[in-house]
Structure formats: C-alpha cells, structure tokens
Amino acid sequence: MKTIRLTAAQALVRYLIAQRTEVDGVEVPLFPGIWAIFGHGNVAGLGEALQEVQDQLPTLRAHNEQGMALAAVSYAKARNRRQIMACTTSIGPGATNMVTAAALAHVNRLPVLLIPGDIFAGRRPDPVLQQIEDFGDATVSANDCFRAVSRYFDRIMRPEQLLAALPRAVSVLTDPAECGPVTLAFPQDVQAEAFDYPEAFFAKKLHRIRRQGADALELGDAVAALKAAKKPLIVAGGGVHYSGAVDRLRKFAAARGIPVAETQAGKGALNWDEDMAMGSVGVTGASSSNILAGEADVVLAVGTRLQDFTTASRTLFANPAAKLIQLNITQFDAAKHAAMPLLGDADRTLAELDAALGSWKAPADWSDKAKSLAKEWRGAVERAQAPSNAERPTDAAVIGAVWRAAKPTDTVVCAAGGLPGELHKLWRSRDAKSYHLEYGYSCMGYEIAGGLGVKLAQPDRDVFVMVGDGSYLMMNSEIATSILLGQKLIITVLDNRGYGCINRLQNATGGASFNNLIDTINNGEVHQVDFAGHAKSLGAHAEMVDGISGLEEALQRARAQDRTSVVVIKTDAVATTQEGGAWWDVAVPEVSTRAEVRAAHARYVGALNNQRLA
After folding, report:
1. In the beta sheet, which residues pair with residue 34?
2. What is the pLDDT of residues 36-72, one digit of tens each?
3. Chain CA centroid to CA 386, Å
4. Are 303 and 237 in contact (CB under 8 A)?
5. pTM, 2 dp
6. In this predicted structure, what is the pLDDT of residue 389?
7. Which Gene3D superfamilies match (predicted)?
8. Which of these, 191, 180, 148, lies nearest to 84 by C-alpha position?
9. Which DSSP string corresponds to 375-409?
C-alpha cells in the first residue's frame, strides 16, 4: 500500500479538496471554500495546511465566528445543499461562537462542516489558555456544546482517526435525509502530528444526490387519498427546492388544479402570479392559503417539517375529516402529525404520483375557488405595499419599495423579528431563488452574514438584505467582510427603535410595553444610533433617508455602487399587515394583576380547544 506522510491538518484539507459534486450536470468542488478565524487552537496546524493549498481550497477571512458560520450555512441553502462550506476557529470563545450557527443549521436541515480547535489531546500543558475544566470529567471541552446541535460529532484524538471520521462526516453532509451540521473537534496537538496515510484515501470522489423512490404501498395509499379528494391542497416546503423539484411541482399543480401554499423555506416554489399560487401559509399566511387549508380534505405536504408557524400551532387544518400526506425524505418528518407517510425524494416521488394519478384532477369548483381567493389576496398585497407619505412608513411599504427596486432574479434575505412575517405574506416571488429567509431558528443576526453567503453562492444576483435595527446591532461585522471580499450587498435597515415585533407580541398577550422599545427604557431618555455613520465606518456606502420616495431613490443609488450600500429608514414600530395570518400558541400567564393579561388568558384557553393533537 502506497502511503504519504502528512500532518493530520494537511490530511483533512487534502481530503476536502478531493471531494466533488455535480451542480446542473457540471462537476464542481463539494467544498468550494473554508472560512477561518485563526487563533492559538488552529493557526499553527490548520492555518499552515490551508496556506499551502489556498489556490485549491480558498480560505475566507471573517470578523465574527458566528457570522462566518451563518454565511457558510446560507451558502449551502442558496446552493440547494449541493455545495458546502467549512469553518475553522480556535478553541474557547472562537469555537462556542459557532454554536448558534450549528443550531440554526440543525433546525433547517442545512449542511456545514465545523472544525473548531480543541485542547491538547496529550494533556501535557493542561490547563491551556481558554480551556474549560470540568471538575468531574477530564474529557470534556468547550466543544462538547456542539453535541446537541450537530448531526454528527467527533473529536479527532489521533491522526489516523481521520480515516474513519472524514468519510462519515461527508456522508452525513451529503445525505438528503441525514443532512445537517457536522462538527469535528480538532485538538491542536493532533493537527500538527504526522501519520502515513494511504494515498488512495485522497482519491477524487464524486457525490451525486440520492433520489429515493416511494414505497409502493405508501404511494398507493397517497394516490387513493388524492383521487378521493374534493378539496386537495399542497403545502410546499424547503425540500421542494433542495430536491430540485420546483419545475415538477409547478407542472403537477397546474395540470391537476391543486392549489399550492408555501412555507417560509418553500416560498418561491411557484411564482407569485401563477394560477395555483396561493401564497404563504400559517401564522404569517395569506388569507387565500389559510382559508383553503381550513377546508381541505387532503393536504399533501412536500418537503416540510410542519413546524408551528406552518400549522398555526396545529389549528390550521380544521376539517375533521382531513387527511395529511407527508412526502418527505426523512422518516422523522414523514411520520409527524399522524400523517400518511410518503417517504421519498420530492422530485422523484412527485413524478411517481403524477404517473399513478392518470387523468385525475381536482374538482373544477375547488380550483376556481382557489383562483378567486388568490386574486383577492393579490389585491390585498398590492394595497399593503403601496407607497406611503407617512413620516414613519410601515414595514409593508418598505417591502414594496425594495421589491420594486429588485429585479426578478435578485434575492431578498432576512431572518428574525417582524420582517419575516411581512415578507412571507407580501414578497412576490418571481424566481425560485428570489426569496431567502431563515425562520426555522428565527436567528437575529443572520441577515447580513446570510446575505454575504447568498452573494458568494449567487454572484450574478444583487442581494437585498432587509434587517431591523435590533438585529443590525447584534451582528453587523460582516459588512466589513463583504467589503474585504468584494461582495456587494444592498442593505436596508428599518429603524423602529427597538424590538418592535416582540413588543407587539407582548401587547397581544396582555402585557405592557416593557424592555423592548428604546423609548420605554431609562425613562424614555432619547437615544439615537447613527446607523449610516456606523456602516460608513465599516467601509460601506451609506445614507439615511426620509420616507418611501427617499428610499426608492436611495436604492437606485445603491444599485449603482460598486460596494456594499446601507440605506437606513425610520419605520413604524406598531403597524403590521392585518390581512391573513392565523393563531399562534404563545402561553399566557394564568395569574396576573393586569386585566389585559387575564383577558388574553381567557382567549388563549378558548383557542386551545381548536388544536388537533392527533
């Protein structure tokens, strides 16, 4: 057996370079790059190994470990999980800064390879700088935090362990069902140790997407349920995109006359003006989708984990006779909500369903009702997004301005707070990749870092990031990274002076405004952040504007810039789109001195009676 002597760090890097994948029939690197912030836990080992191969595996420098890991996750999402980025940090805070990003990737079923440095496997210098010492377990390090939020976790204690760990890691990252974050904790002394690795270990390997077909019995049950349906509805989730099933679903829905509602991750599966496009579903749903969901007798959920925002906390599918078919690549999700499981790849299984259904179509009166409701909803969207002369416009009006500034093939990026709800309702997708929201983990701070990942994945698109002032203050450092890497973003900061979304939720559950809006803190003492000035200090073009007309003009100037631009606008912290929506289960205190809370609790108890628990 022919061998080559390498350090463990060199071996890991060489293995990553050897992994290949296919995107639209073209062979490309599975790992097109690695994000790195170096410290004493990785600079000597991995740092030296990466420097040697920077022409084959580009190393990207960031300013915050969580930010770079979020960028890596958003890159994978934008590439439909076909390509994956890695991230390496030092031990201690550098490593634990990535835990939030790992959790986000886990929730959203998105692949990312995390390689945090670790304490010395040999323990000779213990305790080292930044080492967490567990008084009862000497094997514990800070990296054990990743165990709960990783689909696969390993600690490389000897160089030869890579021979087993790396194939397993890549298997998880590329498997449609197992897909999620992988953490390989890498002790700093092991990184520098050498081993005689088999040359064959570094042979090129091509990874293709696995397309599992449906079980014949499950397929038969699903076909029978659909053929008996009088009011069928499709709920499209992120799996539609990841499977590459967008065109298949569009043709299937159009041919069968079945209306399609979209989750946050599924949005863009249909263009907004297609006949069967009902818009968003659930708590942040369109009235068209939610009305149909309440009446549907068969719901075909495709590639969605049906979290509470989608199901309105299990109240949305109100027809007592409704049957739920869960078409999903994972058994874990396919079995949820007492569903009829239909385990399989979305694209392949939709094709199998289509073939088995023959000439069946949904009843014409149901399809016509769907078209009518969709037309009404589109009118509501148009009204909500209309330009306004208000001194502090609504989020909806700002969304309208950004939508008009964006081309059909541009992408809007957002994450937590009130904006995702408004965008889910109001953004009119004109392309399958025009909408990129992170709402599985609802992670404040994803927006700008996520926008950077999307831009790296889709360099030919303009990326419009929408972010509230609260999220901007949590994580803005990747503005500087976007300048450093020459990746232009167009960022709109909506300054409503606080956490407006949670303030509205606080009020809706009977609570008084407390600790959310800046003007209610410190006796209302005026405090103003110069967001435009701050963005300029990071190297961006930036300006503060007044009103929607000012925003429209500024967005055009931003388009003409050759670098990241930030446009700041003050917005209304209270107003939100009232049309559409559904109930959300947020527990209200049983005991309170506030009459408003007691009244909210009574409403809450009444709403619980509408939940379907099986």
Report:
1. 59, 86
2. 999 999 999 999 999 999 999 999 999 999 999 999 9
3. 28
4. yes
5. 0.97
6. 87
7. 3.40.50.970, TPP-binding domain (3.40.50.1220)
8. 180
9. HHHHHHHHHHTS----SS--HHHHHHHHHHHS-TT
What is the total residue count of the chain?
A: 614
Describe the strand order of the beta sheet including 34-36 as a list of residue ranges. 59-61, 34-36, 86-89, 112-118, 181-187, 152-155
Tens-digit pLDDT profile for residues 367-412: 999 999 999 999 999 999 999 888 899 999 999 999 999 999 999 9
The rounded distance, in Å, linking the Cα atoms of 542 and 531 is 9
Helix/strand/coil (H/E/C) assignment for every residue in 593-607: CCHHHHHHHHHHHHH
Going from the N-terminus, what domains does the chain have, and what CATH number goes with each? 3-207 (3.40.50.970), 216-378 (3.40.50.1220), 386-570 (3.40.50.970)
Report, in angstroms and rounded to the nearest whole number, the Rg of the chain calculated over CA atoms.
25
The two structure tokens encoding residue 73: 């996750």
Separation between Cα atoms, residue 123 and residue 134, nearest integer Å:
14
Please choose, from the candidates 213, 239, 216, 210, the residue with its C-alpha nearest in 3D space to the C-alpha of residue 348: 213
Q: What is the pLDDT of residue 596?
A: 96
353 contacts 252 by C-beta, under 8 angstroms? yes
Q: Per residue in 542-563, pLDDT tens?
A: 999 999 999 999 999 999 999 9
Cα→Cα distances 293→280, 288, 366, Å: 11, 9, 12
Round the average pLDDT of the chain to a whole number and report it: 96
- What is the secondary structure of 52-71 as a DSSP string? HTTTTS-EEE-S-HHHHHHH
235-282 pLDDT per residue, tens: 999 999 999 999 999 999 999 999 999 999 999 999 999 999 999 999
Question: Token pair of 467, please?
Answer: 């972010």
Token output for 501: 């979304």
**Whether the Cβ atoms of residue 70 and residue 11 lie closer than 8 Å to each other:** no
Helix (H, G, I), strand (E, B) or coil at 565: strand
Residue 161 phi/psi, 5-degree rounding, is: -65, -20
> Which tokens is 230 given?
């009088």
CB 238 within 8 A of CB 109: yes
The Cα 559–Cα 527 span in angstroms is 31
Residue 522 pLDDT class (50, 70, 90 cuts): confident
Q: How crowded is residue 44: how many other Cβ atoms within 10 Å of its Cβ?
A: 16
438: exposed, middle or buried (C-beta count within 10 Å: 0-12, 13-18, 19+)? buried
Q: How many CB atoms lie within 10 A of CB 594?
A: 12
Helix, strand, coil % in the chain, rounded to nearest 5? 40, 20, 40
Please tell me the predicted confidence (pLDDT) of residue 525.
74
Integer Cα distance of 298 and 219 in angstroms? 15
Please state, in angstroms and rounded to a whole number, the distance separating the CA atoms of residues 316 and 319. 9
* CA 107 from centroid of its chain's CA atoms: 9
524, pLDDT greater than 70: no
> Number of C-alpha atoms within 13 angstroms, CB side, residue 64?
22
Per DSSP, the three-state class of 567 is strand
**Which of 305, 271, 279, 337 has the alpha carbon at shortest distance from 439?**
305
Residue 73 has pLDDT above 80, yes or no: yes
| Residue 523 pLDDT | 76
Amino acid at 614: A
Six-digit token pair at 607? Answer: 């709403």
Average pLDDT of the segment spanning 199-212:
96
CA distance 72 to 85: 5
Rounded to whole angstroms, the Cα distance separating 562 from 466 reads 19
Helix axes 246-256, 346-357, angle to 10 degrees: 20
